[in-house]
Amino acid sequence: MEHMTQYVRRDIWSLEEPTPWDPVTLGYARAVDVMRGRPADDPTSWDYQAAMHGTYARPPAGADWNQCQHASWFFTSWHRMYVYFFERIVRSVVTDTGGPQDWALPYWNYSTGGPQAALPPAFREATWTGPDGRGGPNPLYTDRRAPGANLGWRLPQRAVSFEDAYSYTNFSGAPLPGFGGGQADPTQFGQFTGALENRPHNVVHDLVGGPTSGACQGGLMSDPNCAAQDPVFWLHHANIDRLWTNWAALGGGRANPADRSWLDQEFTFYDENGKPVQMSASDILHTATQLGYRYDDQVAAVTSLRSQPLAAVGGAAAKAAPQPAPTMVAASESGVELGAGTAQVRVPMAAGAGAGLAVGEPQVTDGERRHVYLNVEGVQAEKHPGVVYEVYLNMPDGTDPVQADNFFVGHVTFFGAGKHADADGAHPATGGMTHTFDVTGLVAHLKAAGAWRAEAAQVSFQPLGLTPPPGAAAPAAAGPAPGHNARIARVSLSVH
């Protein structure tokens, strides 16, 4: 077997600890500068690579633009391929300009917290000294980020936690939303966002990007059509890929799908020579042996990283059995307007549903534990508000923030909300994005604490933005940007 060169993706903060301009970061900046000088119809150019994820520009004939896969089980596999070929293009430029021969794309591990929850320093400097020794605009900097992002303001710890995503041992299917998203045909934005995609993926996009403005005039990371124009996008997605890698190695039943419709679905990318290459999930599951890279903290596999069948027929992988639809037991009678303060909505129970709600009770048919879901439906915004909203269930007014964890559900994000609301050639309008949260344990906790009411539940939404570092001035307001008109059509509870 031919030997494959092994590249190591490293934590950007560990590289930049002594100085922002270590050889890896410097090589990346030089490559970004070179790629931006290439014409937009060159597949190895910055503009072309960014447009493959999303763009407002009209694509050249035959260009593979606006291809990103979100809110479906192709989210992880498509982005792994996308980042892999981008890395190859960048490496070819790095080595051609005298940079490290073993260059690999670093990742931004914001979940570590503390200073590492802020943008890496090299991305915050507006100017730099380029390879010719003269000063100029820093290729890694953009002012089209959230207010405070370039000042070192931090992503809140809970907002970038991956613990909820790692709690799911299923990649797809029930219990919802699953680690990796729901089964769907390839589409730029589907309807089945997985736990990893919701948090930390979407949260980081929203909080780093901030409010959007025009067609990529502001809030690059917040808009799928603009996000890959921000150089930090690629480090964010390297981290998401790292989290997928480590999740699959943890064991405990965690496994990627073995459904042929997932494994064999091909997507087109471009190598460092601008040549088209087709790849499928079956080509990229083992990054070290199939793609030639690993992470500096990669978890040692406790089980095989092979995909495992969702169902088996004669020993061969087969399509997963269709899951019955959840049964709705409660729904709000009105929508919710999201603003600068706490927004609340009452969710009345269907007759007799609230008292039992079947939390923890076995289903009659298969003995499996019944799950309770909180659904935030029809999330829309005329423009991105620049914040996310934390969701709480039955949290009393005036609750001490220390006790808020006892009522915490998750985050409502807006990355891609416009894709759901507006029809275009790639997807139909759906009336807004839906977030589904498994609240089985939380409802059981509320019952045990005497904080559950049979007649109705109360759901609260609180805005959350970046956090100033210790000693920095507090934000003027924690709420959303004006004119966003963010709203939710309905909040419901269902059981499955």
TrEMBL record:
* Protein name listed in UniProt: Tyrosinase copper-binding domain-containing protein
Which family does the record assign? Answer: Belongs to the tyrosinase family.
Q: Which Pfam families match?
A: DUF7868, PPO1_DWL, Tyrosinase
Matching InterPro entries: Di-copper_centre_dom_sf, DUF7868, Polyphenol_oxidase_cen, Tyrosinase/Hemocyanin, Tyrosinase_Cu-bd
Query: Which UniProt keywords are present, listed alphabetically?
Result: Copper, Metal-binding, Oxidoreductase
Output the SUPFAM superfamilies linked to this UniProt entry: Di-copper centre-containing domain
Matching PANTHER family, A to Z?
SHKT DOMAIN-CONTAINING PROTEIN, TYROSINASE FAMILY MEMBER
Q: Which residues form the Tyrosinase copper-binding domain?
A: 70-87, 230-241
Q: Which cofactor does it need?
A: Cu(2+)
Q: Whose protein is this, by species?
A: Pilimelia terevasa
Judging by the UniProt lineage, the source's domain of life is Bacteria
Keyword match Transmembrane = no
Tell me which stretches of the chain form a coiled coil: none
GO MF terms on file? catechol oxidase activity; metal ion binding
Lineage of origin? Bacteria, Bacillati, Actinomycetota, Actinomycetes, Micromonosporales
Presence of the UniProt keyword Lipoprotein in the record: no
